[in-house]
Write a structure and sequence with these properties.
This protein folds into 2 domains: 211 residues, Rossmann fold (3-Layer(aba) Sandwich); 46 residues, Alpha-Beta Plaits (2-Layer Sandwich), CATH 3.30.70.20. The protein is built from 11 helices and 11 strands. The strands form 2 sheets. It has a 9-stranded mixed sheet with strand order 3-6-7-2-8-1-9-10-11, with helices on both faces. The longest helix has 17 residues. The chain is elongated, with a radius of gyration of 22 Å. Bound molecules: iron/sulfur cluster (2 copies). The site of one iron/sulfur cluster has 13 residues, from helix 4.
């Protein structure tokens, strides 16, 4: 079963929930941190990494002995990453999306490729949890290919917990699209409510089964609750603004390790999701 933990905005406690759910299951679990621009699950899980790989994307290299400066590569590139100016072809690697258009269209077969590192993939373990995350290099903006690379490590025989990037844009869709269930984490504030509605619209468009967790449920107003009731969206869990959680977070320790009584709550959450998925 694949469970994604997502949120319409950052700072709702998405990673905390994903980690504690994974740790509560204890075995046969994969935790995939797909928040590749800011992966921080490892800070809490503290896995031992036994494999680190560079992740690169192909960018064009022009062979000027073959090129006749026809301009076709520049015409097809939607990102202005390759430009033909008179008797020269300029490549701008930072703009390239590795779409392959230029080397496929080149009539002279004058374009080969070389990999440009955009991030790293790290694989490790901790107490029966298989931990995998992608780390996008600072300054790189194209996260979906690295998210795909993290997901290629998915083991269908295990329970997979995906920590999605926040928001509702392409990287989120890339992270969650094959999920059996999506948990949308929100908080009962005007910003939380607004971003939850966008996230609900997104998962409904993709056609995914989902529910909501309200974090810091005792702070703010009832708009999120009323909305979920109106829209027939299950509220899977409400977490109050507990000092214990803040303490665990500030010490970089998962809640279920510092306060084992929380483990039962996360196990109940998992069983609820299992029932909803029909697994
Ligand atoms: S398409 Fe090929 S031959 Fe034409 S300008 Fe580009 S690299 Fe040169
Ligand atoms: S691979 Fe695509 S994005 Fe990159 S330079 Fe070629 S056409 Fe442009």
């Amino acid at each position: 079963m694949i469970i994604s933990i997502a949120s319409g905005k950052g700072g709702t406690g998405k990673t905390t929930l994903a980690i504690n759910l994974a740790l509560s299951l204890e075995k046969n679990v994969q935790y995939l941190d797909c928040d590749v621009e800011e992966p921080n699950g490892h800070i809490f899980v503290k896995p031992t990494f036994d494999e680190k790989k560079s992740f690169g994307m192909p960018i064009p290299v022009v062979d000027f002995d073959k090129c006749d400066y026809c301009g076709k590569c520049g015409e097809i590139c939607e990102y202005n990453a390759i430009v033909v100016i008179k008797q020269n072809v300029l490549v701008f690697p930072d703009l390239c999306h590795s779409c392959a258009g230029c080397w496929l269209v080149c009539p002279q077969k004058a374009i080969s490729t070389k990999d440009k590192e955009v991030g790293q993939l790290e694989l490790g373990n901790r107490n029966g949890i298989e931990f995998i995350h992608g780390k996008l290099n600072v300054g790189e903006s194209l996260s979906p290919p690295l998210i795909r690379a993290v997901k290629e490590k998915m083991d269908p025989t295990k329970t997979v917990i995906i920590d999605s990037p926040p928001g509702t844009s392409c990287p989120v869709i890339e992270a969650i699209k094959e999920s059996d269930f999506v948990v949308l984490v929100t908080e009962p504030t005007p910003f939380g409510f607004n971003d939850l509605k966008l996230a609900v619209e997104m998962v409904r468009k993709i056609g995914l089964n989902f529910g909501v967790i309200i974090n810091r449920a005792d702070v703010g107003n009832r708009d999120v609750h009323d909305y979920c009731t109106r829209e027939n969206i299950p509220i899977l869990m409400e977490i109050n603004n507990d000092r214990k959680i803040a303490e665990a977070y500030s010490r970089g320790v998962p809640i279920v390790e510092l306060y084992p009584e929380y483990r039962d709550k996360f196990l109940a959450l998992y069983q609820d999701i299992e029932r909803r998925v029909g697994a």
